[in-house]
Amino acid sequence: MKITSIAITKTEGNKRQIADVSIVIDYCLLIGNIRLIDNGKKRFVEFSKTIRRHTGNESSDVIPLTPKARSYIEQEVIKEYDRLERSENII
To answer: How many Å apart are CA 66 and CA 9, to the nearest integer?
Structure first.
């Protein structure tokens, strides 16, 4: 698995969420609605969740199944956010 594209949009007016992110894996799988969160101690990614109308239960739409996969996605997103922030190219 390799992230081949990352799109980051800086968010305004939210204390914790600093960006909306979408990634493409291996040029063939788009994962959107990823949130980059800064809780004051560290930055991390949070994947989208859906509330099911018929039950009212919340469930994750995308779940990295291994700590290695989650860590890889998180590191790449944070690295790209930092790179764009340094060059002030975050839209």
So the answer is: 26
pLDDT tens per residue, range 30-51: 999 999 999 989 999 999 877 7
Domain count across the chain: 1
| pLDDT greater than 60 at residue 27 | yes
pTM: 0.84
pLDDT at 13: 85
Distance CA 10, CA 84 (A): 10
d(CA 41, CA 46): 15
Which pLDDT belongs to residue 89?
A: 60
DSSP the chain: --EEEEEEEE--S-SSEEEEEEEEETTTEEEEEEEEEE-SS-EEEE--EEE-TTT--EEES---SSHHHHHHHHHHHHHHHHHHHHHT---
Domain extent, residue 54, equals 3-87
